[in-house]
Design goal:
Number of strands: 29
Oligomer: single chain
Shape: flat
Mean pLDDT: 86
Radius of gyration: 55 Å
Low-confidence stretches: none
Largest sheet: 5 strands, parallel
Strand order of the largest sheet: 2-5-8-1-9
Number of helices: 48
């Protein structure tokens, strides 16, 4: 092997060098201790792999543990982590405790794994990996940290890990964050294989490969036996071990090599584990010490043997299909249970190992009758084998008022599979039932979960997978049914368990690299018992949950499920019913129908005849009508068989007087179920011939005799086309309240009835339908009406556009008095509006007794999720998580009202779960889905593959091209209102038909030669007729227009001849008027020319005066602008001074006046005020004592300040006429004084500051005024001269306007005369021309 090869290479490279063996004594001892604690067997291969993981962890920070299930991958790293922790506690250097985080990378999206930006807010949110990686990278503890990726490796998600796995050891996120890996971290991967891993990834990782066959199944058994209670002795364990050792190898060899077919592949260890699970389920009495002590050894040994053999049959033998696998397994089991295995048997089944006879005979061998699959083991006395059919004998009869869809006829299969489900559920063992469609997998599980299990303990949850199911959808559905028990822990209410039943488990589409995220999500739950919150990435622990799965065999849209998921499940195959079982089921139903409906004894033999004939047709159809790319809907299952019988059950003794009518009904139902989906004439002819053969063989009826009334050409032979007239319906007699399902005797009468329904529909509906009720349309209406009248009846109507699928469905719903629903798609239509529409449809269809028909076309499939919801409605009658809690409560209240109106025996227990299940049941019974799909292109085939319920749960009606009678009827109807002779109309009809048929033939030829499709649809035919009518109408309209124009022309010529004479007289009268008008115009022209000269002279004088006035105005404006410019300097200063005065109040003035010895600044200011106002000072003695009198302004200032209008007078002061002498004193003594400035004055008095500003402003203004004064005088003179000039100019302008007005009147009069003259000339000219 590789290890020895590596040692050989090193010895060649380093000859003579012996590599020292590492000392693993401590860690080996710790591993052994941990294996004991975990009840694991420390085999040498298992120990070697653990040590390899340890060595790899030391030298590589990224490595992979690869291998199939049961190779010991998870157990090996778990034991190593615990062993290292044990050594750390002992203080041995080099070992630390280990922290582990396990992530399944395929159970969530890439964005949820690494992190993603919000599509709307563009806000970054971390993924599960980012959070866990950061937690480990930032941790300061010395513990080892293992980030384990337990899931498939592909080339997408792991490529982002390349920078982590190489020497950079950095995780780079899209947000720009880069996180360095710590020394204690290891990145571990636990995939099953590396089939799609890229070389870039593989080259960066260390590899440890683990194989299940190296570990084998023996350690599993040994650990399992050690879990037995202590009161079970070693002798009893040895007996069980001996049976394992003796029977398992040959059983596994048989499954693998005998040619037995497993519908779902298993592994050897999985089969052994399944056997141990089944044994556990039956060991309740033996595990109970009190009951065990009451048994003697012989009884215990007998029980152990019987329990083992029963488990052996339903584990190893339960995973293989019926024929020939189970028959041969029966022979093998009987032989090895009695003694050794003969050489003949070993050779026949390719069993390698020799099987020794048992040490003693088995105490309770299998009975000789039947097979080992026909018995269950009963732990009584010495044990006994009891037939499954024993329970059937005591089964109650079918109730008289039973509904067909709810009838479960007890058979060997129903009893044994229900028993196995009960075993698994009550002992919390997950299981998987595999079998073809229609074998009852879902029915068995649903019936058990809803009707036979303790509802106070077990809570069912049904999930239907489809091709579009995602992991997030699955998680939301499950979490929507769970309660939050405490932080991070979810489960059903305390004391209950939730049983999750997943139907069509293998339907989810494989990703590009083969993973199935919904399956990986379920595996994460079964492996780890947890999921991750999709919003905050926290771990969600799941408790008290149990899994049951059901699926069809892989193929045709169904995929193989990963063995890593199947390892958790007991796989049981439910194969197709054998003939005996099918006869038992359907014959009992037929007998019940004939008895309860009161049919005569003549009908009793028909029960077995109809069932047997139907079985033969069903089996032959599966062999001969095989699916191909163009016939992808040729898929038949037991539901089709049931639909035929269900159709026959519509018969009533009131109108079925003879058995021949029921035989014709049987043919009709066979045609509706099998024939209506056929697209090929060869297939139709085969079915017609085979049905004829079955009639003769099982019912002793000749097709030609039985349907002689349908022979259209009366040649004594009934053809396939004649059977088009075979119709059964319940609407042929509208007056009959019973609505009996009866044969249509007169199609013409039925057509009249349907047309009456159509007229009634058009009266009631806003959107009227203009339909032609030809025979083809009536056939399809009867087919649609037949399906929607049955409980759980759904239609798949397949045809090209214009074939009438939608119109006929609407009419059929109206005839059945059902409510019609259809969604309206718009650009803004999303899944939110879709879900609201679905809610509305389900409520309206179930809150009353009126059924609903939901018509949905393929053109309305805006998102694939729409079909996902349709698939769920067809399968289960509900869309998971459709209704929030408040709406559910509202529904339950409504259902409670409905439930109370039933008989007490049929009422529910009143719990919310039971009431909502009643709502779902009513949805299944009262909502009828009609799907209108087109077969063109690959979309139809892909949808059938991805959503199997479209075929399994629907009756298919294939709309063939319109036959000749349909083409004739349509053309006749639409050409009736066209005005033409009957011969021409018939010719047009024939031509339209010829065009349509020949185009179809040419399209077929085009396809055969060029392999390109050209589709000729009924819409094309209607367009042809419509185009012909439009073109005919247009041509007729053109001809009528031309004819009318010719007639009008003749009329015009006649009227013109009469008008010419009249106009001649008018011409003679107009000539004198024309001469007078010409004379008036000439005279007016002379007057206008003279007046124009005078106006021109006046205008010239006015223009000259205007020029002079404009010059004077310009000069005046220049002077004014100069004055304004000079004043611009003084005015702001003056305004500032006045503003300063505004701030002064009488109180401020009183303060100044109160000074007895005023400051210098105050005295200066007031002296200046007195000088400007020309107030004389007082003369007082000189204080210095000179004896002279001096001038004192303060007393005068007080008088001035005492004036009440002091401030007002300052504001209104005549600043333009200040005497020159005053200004001279002011400018000589005060203005130059450096103390006389506002800023310094303010130090003495704020009131005087404003007065100072005013004085200085007067000085500035006076300077400017002395300059501006002469200019203002000059301006006044200039403005006076301008006013005089403008006055004179205005007089001349007035005179000019008068002259111009006079001239304008003359010109208007001239124009009128000219127009009058021109009109006269035109009249004369027109008369002359005419």
């Amino acid at each position: 092997n590789a290890e020895y090869m590596g040692e050989g290479i090193t010895s060649d490279l380093f000859p003579g060098v012996l590599l020292p063996k590492p000392d693993y004594d401590h860690i080996t001892e710790a591993i052994q201790n941990q294996c004991k604690q975990l009840n694991l067997q420390m085999t040498q291969p298992f120990l070697a792999k653990i040590l390899q993981i340890y060595e790899m962890m030391i030298v590589r920070h990224g490595f992979m543990i690869v291998g199939l299930p049961f190779a010991g991958k998870t157990a090996s790293y778990t034991v190593l982590a615990r062993a290292m922790g044990e050594l750390c506690e002992k203080g041995i250097e080099g070992f630390e405790r280990t922290q582990i985080i396990v992530i399944n990378p395929k159970s969530i999206t890439m964005g949820q794994l690494y992190g993603q930006f919000d599509a709307v807010s563009h806000e970054w949110s971390d993924g599960v990996l980012a959070v866990s990686y950061r937690q480990f990278a930032q941790s300061q503890t010395p513990d080892r940290k293992w980030l384990i990726f337990d899931g498939p490796i592909d080339a997408i998600w792991i490529e982002n890990m390349n920078t982590v796995l190489d020497d950079n050891k950095k995780l780079c996120l899209m947000s720009g964050e880069i996180m360095q890996m710590s020394q204690q971290m290891s990145m571990m991967f636990e995939p099953m294989d590396l089939e799609v891993a890229s070389p870039a990834t593989v080259s960066r990782c260390g590899m440890i490969y683990m194989e299940p066959h190296v570990l084998g199944w023996e350690p599993l058994v040994k650990s399992w036996l050690q879990e037995f209670p202590a009161h079970i002795s070693e002798m009893h364990k040895a007996l069980v071990k001996e049976m394992f050792d003796r029977l398992i190898p040959c059983g596994v060899d048989f499954v693998r090599k005998s040619g037995a077919r497993e519908l779902s592949p298993t592994t050897d260890a999985n089969l052994v584990k399944s056997l141990m699970n089944i044994i556990d389920c039956q060991m309740d009495d033996l595990f109970d010490e009190a009951k065990f002590n009451k048994l003697d050894d012989r009884e215990i040994c007998a029980w152990l043997e019987g329990i083992f053999l029963f488990g052996y049959v339903w584990s190893l033998g339960g995973s293989i299909s019926e024929d020939p696998g189970r028959k041969n397994f029966d022979l093998l089991t009987r032989e090895v249970s009695k003694g050794g295995l003969s050489e003949e048997t070993r050779a026949r089944f390719h069993i390698i190992e020799y099987v020794e006879p048992p040490s003693k005979e088995i105490s309770c061998p299998f009975p000789k009758e039947g097979t080992v699959y026909d018995y269950k083991f009963i732990t009584e006395d010495m044990g006994r084998w009891e037939k499954w059919t024993t329970e059937i004998e005591s089964a109650p009869p079918i109730p008289k008022d039973a509904e067909f869809s709810k009838i479960i006829v007890p058979t060997k299969d129903t009893v044994r599979y229900t028993y196995l489900i009960d075993l698994f559920v009550k002992h919390s063992k997950s299981c998987l039932f595999v079998g073809p469609t229609g074998t009852g997998k879902s029915v068995y599980i649903s019936d058990y979960l809803f009707n036979k299990v303790d509802k106070s303990v077990y809570k069912p949850l049904i999930i239907n997978f489809s091709a579009q199911t995602s992991a997030n959808q699955t998680q939301n559905i499950v979490l929507g049914k769970l309660d939050k028990r405490r932080k991070g822990v979810f489960g059903p209410p305390v004391g209950q368990k939730i049983v999750i039943m997943v139907d069509d488990l293998n339907m989810p589409t494989l990703e590009i690299y083969g993973a199935q995220p919904p399956i990986e999500l379920l595996r994460q739950w079964l492996d780890l018992g947890q999921w991750y919150d999709l919003k905050d990435t926290s771990a969600l622990k799941l408790v008290d949950m149990l899994f049951i799965g059901a699926m069809g065999p892989p193929g045709g849209g169904r995929n193989n499920v990963t063995p890593r998921f199947l390892r958790h499940l007991n796989t049981v195959v439910i194969d197709d019913f054998n003939d005996e079982t099918m006869n038992l089921i359907f014959k009992r139903i037929m007998d019940w129908h004939i008895a309860t409906e009161g049919f005569t004894d003549m009908f009793k033999p028909l029960a077995s005849q109809i069932v047997t004939a139907t079985m033969q047709v069903y089996k032959s159809a599966m062999k001969n009508l095989l699916p191909t790319p163009s016939k992808s809907h040729y898929l038949f299952n037991l539901r089709d068989f049931a639909r035929v019988i269900q159709g026959v059950l519509l018969s009533r003794a009131d109108n079925f007087e003879e058995p021949s009518v029921m035989k014709r009904l049987w043919v009709h139902e066979i045609y509706r179920v099998f024939y209506d989906r056929l697209i090929d004439d060869n297939d139709r002819n085969w079915l017609f011939g085979y049905v004829s053969e079955m009639l003769k063989k099982f019912m002793s009826e000749d097709m030609n005799t039985l349907f002689s009334h349908l022979d259209s050409d009366n040649d004594g032979k009934v053809t396939d086309d004649d059977l088009r007239s075979l119709m059964f319906c319940d609407f042929s007699n509208p007056k009959d309240d019973k609505k009996l399902y009866e044969e249509v005797a007169d199609i013409e009468k039925l057509r009249v009835t349907v047309e009456a329904y159509l007229d009634e529909y058009n009266l009631m509906s806003k959107k009227q339908m203009n339909l032609v009720m030809f025979r083809f349309a009536i056939e399809h209406i009867s087919r649609i009406a037949r399906v929607i009248k049955q409980p759980r009846g759904h239609c798949l109507l397949v045809g090209v556009g214009g074939s009438g699928r939608q119109s006929l469905t609407r009419l059929a719903a109206h005839m059945a008095d059902y409510q019609m629903f259809q969604v309206e798609i718009s650009k803004s239509y999303t899944s939110i509006e879709w879900r609201e529409d679905i809610k509305r449809i389900l409520r309206k269809s179930t809150f009353t007794e009126q059924h609903g028909v939901f018509l949905f076309t393929d053109t309305q499939i805006k998102q694939q999720s729409f079909l996902e919801d349709i698939n769920n409605l067809l399968n289960a009658g509900e869309v998971p998580n459709l209704f929030p809690l408040d709406e559910k409560q509202e529904i339950c209240e409504k259902m409670r009202q409905i439930d109370r109106q039933k008989d007490k025996s049929k009422q529910t227990d009143g719990t919310a779960l039971a009431l909502f299940n009643l709502f779902i049941e009513r949805c299944r019974e009262q909502v009828h889905i009609c799907l209108a799909f087109s077969p063109i292109g690959e979309a139809f085939r892909n949808r059938l593959r991805m959503f199997p319920a479209l075929v399994n749960c629907c009756t298919i009606d294939w709309f063939k091209p319109w036959p000749e009678d349909a083409l004739s009827a349509v053309a006749t109807r639409f050409l009736t209102d066209v005005e033409m002779t009957d011969d021409i109309r018939n010719g047009c009809i024939d031509i339209c038909k010829m065009f349509h048929v020949s185009t179809i033939e040419l399209s077929d030829r085009f396809f055969s030669e060029q392999f390109r499709h050209n589709y000729v649809t009924p819409t094309s035919y209607l367009e042809l007729i419509s185009t012909y009518k439009t073109l005919l109408e247009k041509k007729r309209s053109d001809l009528m227009k031309q004819k009318r124009r010719y007639e009008v022309g003749l009329e015009k010529l006649q009227s013109a001849a009469g008008q010419v004479a009249t106009m001649q007289l008018e011409l003679e009268a107009l000539q004198p008027q024309l001469i007078v008008a010409q004379k008036e115009v000439d005279e007016m022209m002379v007057v206008i020319e003279r007046d124009s000269v005078e106006v021109a002279k006046t205008e010239k004088v006015v223009r000259a005066d205007e020029a002079v006035a404009n010059e004077q105005a310009a000069a005046a404006k220049a002077i004014k602008d100069e004055c304004d410019s000079d004043l611009a300097e003084a005015i702001p200063i003056l305004n500032g001074a006045l503003s300063a005065l505004d701030t002064l109040t009488p109180a401020d003035i009183n303060i100044v006046k109160s000074f007895k010895n005023p400051p210098l600044g105050v005295k200066l200011t007031m002296e200046a005020i007195c000088i400007i106002k020309q107030v004389k000072p007082d003369r007082i003695p000189d204080p210095s004592g000179s004896g002279k009198k001096i001038e004192d302004y303060w007393a005068a200032s007080k008088r001035v300040l005492g004036d009440m209008k002091f401030l007002q007078n300052l504001k209104e002061f005549d600043k333009d006429n200040i005497p020159v002498a005053v200004m001279k004193v002011l400018r000589t003594k005060y203005i130059p004084d450096p103390e006389f400035v506002p800023s310094k004055i303010a130090n003495s008095s704020t009131a005087c500051e404003g007065l100072c500003k005013w004085v200085r402003a007067m000085d500035t203004y006076d300077k400017v005024a002395k300059i501006v004064g002469p200019k203002k005088a000059k301006l006044k003179i200039a403005e006076a001269e301008l006013a005089t000039a403008m006055s004179s100019l205005e007089k001349k302008r007035s005179s000019l306007r008068e002259v111009q007005a006079k001239l304008k009147k003359l010109q208007m009069k001239l124009e009128q005369n000219k127009q009058k003259k021109a009109d006269l000339e035109n009249q004369v000219d027109m008369c002359s021309k005419k």
